[in-house]
Amino acid sequence: MAVWQDNLKRLLNQKEVLIIHGNIRDTAYLTEEGNLVRGLTDLINRTGKELGYDKTVSWGSFFDHEGRGHSPIWSLERITPLNGDQPEIRKTESQDRVSDVLHRWLEDEITSIDEKKIFIINYIDKITGYAPDGMYSEPTAELVTLIQKIIENISENNRLIMIALRDTMIPVEYYTNSPRVAVMEIPLPDRAERHLYYSTTLASASIPSDQIDLLSNITEGLYMKDLENILSDVLEEIDENQEVSSSMLRKIVNRYRIGTEEDPWSRIPLTGPPKGLLDSAENWFLERVVGQDHAVREIVNAIKKARSGVVGLSSGGQSKPKATFFFAGPTGVGKTFLAKKLAEYLFDTEEAFLRFDMSEFKEEHTVSKLIGSPPGYVGYEQGGQLTNAIKNRPFSVILFDEIEKAHPKIMDIFLQILDDGRLTDSRGQTVFFTESVIIFTSNIGTRTVDSRGNTTSEQRKLDEIINDSDLSDSERERRVREHFTRSVREFFMHEISRRELLNRIGSHIIAFNYLKKSDYQVNIIENKLKDISENFRDKFAGRGHRLHLSGGLTGYFLEKYGDSISEFGGRGLVNALEDEIGNIVADQLLLAEERGMSDINFEVYVDGDVIRCRRS
């Protein structure tokens, strides 16, 4: 039996009043024998019978005496004898049905000691919703008072169960400083329940135990209704093909988890250029990302684990994100660029790259920007930026930039994502991160002031390593990586005291190198010049224009901006190239436009200590 069902039985023995919330709308619940009980009311009836109760009085369900839907729901109560006799339907004719039912319960029934009854109020949050300021309308205040009196006066032989979607949606007066009341959440089926369900229902289908284990692992976060649908699809696949593969199981589960059977991960080629994971992937990245060989190797190794399906083997959970990284290093060295290229490698487009600037989430209330505003607040209907983005594109590389600037409450969201691979937005809808890659970036290690406003020696220690002339280039790079890794660990362990988040990131703290080597700088300049040439061709192909960049430009920009690249990385170089080349090319383009000229060749070249542009 599930732990929560044991808790339900225990609390019904100990407390007169029980508030149940969470997974209350599931179609069925699993017993310890592997059987399904249809609906929460039937489960309560079953539990009540085991505990020796005589009847349940269920109010607020859609039914009539023939089992069909009936409106308004507050006019009917279903009285179910737990000895097997037929249920009785009691109807309230008054216009003020809710108040009349509660008055009758209070005055005539809940204090009775003749029988042991369980009174059930469904949708208590619809009868008396939570008021943030505690100010209720007069009719609602009367109902809140009536329910409080029921709680205070119910006899020890009777029980009251109030059912709501979320405990935060009902008045706190019901359970605050109330020793007779317990609040209990019904969770989604856990792994033990899922394994029991599938091992029982697939016992005669000749499915290997390892595939039942896989099915139990990858269905985390799903409702019993989803598990039933998945079972139906699995049995259908067996009927058609006499077997079911692990990849097919994943496709079937994804149909209900993220709404698609697509699996870009399975399309990553294992061998062959340009992207073969076993022999070409590193070169693919190194051709695009300059000077970060160590980071590229770490990325490729993580992709191999994700592609092979071994992520989560040690923890037993396979519903986590495919990979998690923490990119640490100075600004402008390619952290964001590598994340974009990872999205392109995995999903064939940089549009699968999502970036969130965490400097926009410094205040506690900004958590609503990620998961949506609570009910009743402005923007509730819009949802959250993060949850909406993952709903629309579950196969993504998600970058949380400058993570150290986020409010600590945001860290709780990251903990849930890294632990469970899912997140529930403010509207109660669950989104899954199981097919995504999570990347945090930070300049921790280069700061002079920490997140508390205290002076830190990070930059001074880094300068000592960089300026130590006795170190070889390889030793300097190694010590720089150690410095950034140590700084990140100290940030989580001591500065914000979030060791649990550091544990989820694990060994995937990737430190980026400074771009001091001249060959790194040459490659960066050449790549940027190539980008300019290609982008010019794409933009002005309709006019027949072409842009030629002479070979001397690399040396010109290396001499002029080499020191800047060493200190600030390649980001400033992009602006410098656009300014210098863009300014002189713009003049020639405008002159050509003014004279109605097309099919022009623009050549940018070095003339002494300046660059010029001529057209031909």
TrEMBL record:
Keywords: ATP-binding, Chaperone, Hydrolase, Nucleotide-binding, Protease. Signal peptide: none annotated. Gene3D superfamilies: P-loop containing nucleotide triphosphate hydrolases. GO terms for biological process: cellular response to heat; proteolysis. GO terms for molecular function: ATP binding; ATP hydrolysis activity; peptidase activity. The keyword Hydrolase applies. It comes from the Archaea. CDD domains: RecA-like_ClpB_Hsp104-like. Residues 321-463 form the AAA+ ATPase domain. GO terms for cellular component: cytoplasm. It holds the Pfam family AAA_2. This is ATP-dependent Clp protease ATP-binding subunit ClpA.
